[in-house]
Amino acid sequence: MSDTPNVSDSTAGDDIELNLDALAPEESHDDDVDLNLDALAPDKDDEHTDEAPLNLDFDADSKEESSEEKLGDSDIARNLGLGQDADDEQQDSAGEEEQSADNQDAVDEAVAKLRDDLDMKFGQWYVLHTYSGMENKVKQNLDARVQNFNMEDYIYETVVPTEEVVEIRNGVRKTITRVFMPGYVLVRMDLTEESWGTVRHTPSVTGFVGNAMDPIPLTQDEVVKMLTPSVIAQVNHDMAGQAPSPKAKRKVEVADYEVGESVQIIEGPFAGVPAVIDEINVNSQRVKASVEILGRSTPVDLEFNQIRKD
């Protein structure tokens, strides 16, 4: 009998099997924890209600933000009163433009009315030549002669065309009315030998302009051109305080000096030096003059109060 155990019969059933699963704690399959990543995401219903869709149109967003910023800035400025002065200036400017347009309309209406009046009047217009400075005296004398010689049915009207200008004298601005055409007077008449003689022999009248014995009457456009300055002056008076239109703007002239006149510089670095006026700026009340320095003519810019007449 052998000492070696006989295990041939029980090898299949008695072999020891190492079950690694036995080392782990027994857990039922049902107790396994599944990691559900879907739980970390919001519900589909919540996506539709709480989360805005992703917009990749970045330009659109910037436009919306810019619009909101502009609206917000405008509201803030309005609430704080900022920019109100600018708005007022724009309104004032618009008001001035409207007034200027109204004034311009008034000038056009006045000139149109002048034309209508001329169409309705009898006679024709002629120009008389007079001694300069005697225009108003000629009108006075001629009107008197018309009455004295009973020429009212032939000589209807005598007019001295005038205009308004802003004159600067001694640094002071003043609006004056002056003769528009020095040395000339208009007369509306029917030309006959008697009417011609009445006009021609008026004191200070040197004759009719044109053919002295058979003068040529003016056209309506020529008459309108000569009378328009006085019409504009009347419009300016009627609309005083309003913005003048370009056509109704008065001319500005300097009575103290004229181009080419010699003056003496009394103030500044060139005091005591004579100068000749080359240009006059009536708005700034300055002159451009030429002075002689070291034998050369040098231009200088001077104010009115820096010069005086020789």
Automatic annotation (TrEMBL):
Keyword Transcription found: yes
Keywords of this entry: Transcription, Transcription antitermination, Transcription regulation, Transcription termination
SUPFAM superfamilies the UniProt entry points to: N-utilization substance G protein NusG, N-terminal domain, Translation proteins SH3-like domain
Cited InterPro entries: KOW, NGN, NGN-like_dom, NGN_dom_sf, NusG-like, Rib_uL2_dom2, Transcrpt_antiterm_NusG, Translation_prot_SH3-like_sf
Statement: the UniProt record of this protein carries the keyword Transcription regulation: yes
Extent of Acidic residues compositional bias: 85-106
Cross-referenced CDD domains: KOW_NusG, NGN_Bact_1
Sequence ranges of Basic and acidic residues compositional bias: 41-51, 60-76
Region annotation (Disordered) ranges: 1-106
Compositionally biased spans, kind Polar residues: 1-11
Domain KOW: 256-283
SMART domains documented for this protein: KOW (SM00739), NGN (SM00738)
Domain called NusG-like N-terminal: residue spans: 122-230
GO biological process assignments: DNA-templated transcription elongation; DNA-templated transcription termination; regulation of DNA-templated transcription elongation; transcription antitermination
Cellular component GO terms held in the UniProt record: cytosol
Similarity field: Belongs to the NusG family.
Purpose of the protein: Participates in transcription elongation, termination and antitermination.
PANTHER family assigned: RHO-INTERACTING TRANSCRIPTION TERMINATION FACTOR NUSG (PTHR30265), TRANSCRIPTION TERMINATION_ANTITERMINATION PROTEIN NUSG (PTHR30265:SF2)
Identification of the protein by name: Transcription termination/antitermination protein NusG
Source organism per UniProt: Cutibacterium granulosum DSM 20700
